[in-house]
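ok so i was messing around last nite and threw this chain in just to see what happens. nothing serious, just curious
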Amino acid sequence: MTWDQGLHKTISTINDGTGREMTYLEAIRDALRYELQRDPQVLLLGEDIGVYGGAFKVTQGLIEEFGAQRVIDTPMAELCMISVATGMAFQGFRPVVEMQFADFISTGFDSIVQFAATNHYRWGQAVPITIRAPGGGGLRAGPFHSQSNEAWFAHVPGLKVVAPATSADARGLLISAIRDPNPVIYYETKALYRSLKGSVHAGEEGIVPIGKALQRQVGEELTIIAYAAMVVEALHAAQQLQAEGHSIEVLDLRTLRPLDDDAILASVRKTGKVLIVHEANRTGGIGGEVAALIAEHAFEYLDGPITRVAAPDTPVPYSPPLEDAYRPNAAKILAAARQLLAY
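result:
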C-alpha cells in the first residue's frame, strides 16, 4: 500500500454527537470555508493550496470560492511564509499557513519560535496566525514525510499546540485556532484524512475550546491517555479490554499546550493506573511531560508504574513491515495495558 492509497482506506467512525457526517479532511475544509466566509481578515497561504487544491486536496475548491487574494499559492519557502503571515497578523489579518507536511516546518522554525511566539511577551502584540501541520506516519511516506514533531513546539512559551483526533474536533479546534490571538500549531494527522468519519456540527455549534481534554470512554481500572491518531488505536484496545471484563478510561488530550492538567489528574486519581500513548518518538515526547505531571501531583494515587507506548528513537521507516513495527497500534497498546492491569 502506497501513502496515497492509504489515504482512501476508511477504517473508523467516531461520532461526537448529531450532525453531518464528514471525513476528517472534509471537516478541516469546512472549518476553513466557514472562517473565510465569516471573517474577511482570514486568508490562507501555502504551497499548491490554490489551483491544485493542496497536496491532499484539503483546500480544493476554496480558490474558486474566495479568490487568489485570500487563497494564496506561495513558493516553496516555509520561513518566508511564516514571516509574511506574522507581518500580516500585525496588520489585522488572520493567516492560516499550510506546511504541506509537518516535516517541512523545521525550515520555518526560527520565525515561529524566535519571533511569532515571543511578540506578545516583547511588546503586547497579538500574533493570530494558525500553522497547519499534516503529520504522522502510516502511509509509507518515509522519514521526510511522516514525522510527529509536535513536542518541539509544546516546549515554547507563547505557542499553543492542538492535535484533533476526530472529525468534530478537527473542525472545532481549527475554528478556535484561527480565532485565537496567539500563534497556534494545528497538528492534523494525514492517516486520518479519509480513514476516519464522524458527525460534525455546522455554524457556531461544536467549536472546541483550546486547552480542554475529553473523556472518550469512561472507566475505573486504567486510564489510557492519547491524542491524534493514537486515540483511535486506544479506543480499539479499550473496547477489546472492555469485552474481557475490564473498565478502561480513554482520555483524549486534544490540546498539547496548554495541557488540561485538571482532567489528566482527575482521571488518574480515579483509576490509579495510567498508560500514555503517542506516535512521536519516546524521548522528549509529550508523554514524558504528562508522566511528570502525574508523578508530581498524583503519585500517592498510583497503583502501578506510569507506562508509555511510543515510537522508538529512530527516523520513520519507509518499508511497510518496518513502519508497522515502528508505529504504536491497538495491539501494542493492548499488550501494555494487560501488563499494567496485572501489576
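not much to say yet. Residues 266 and 298 are 9 Å apart (CA to CA).
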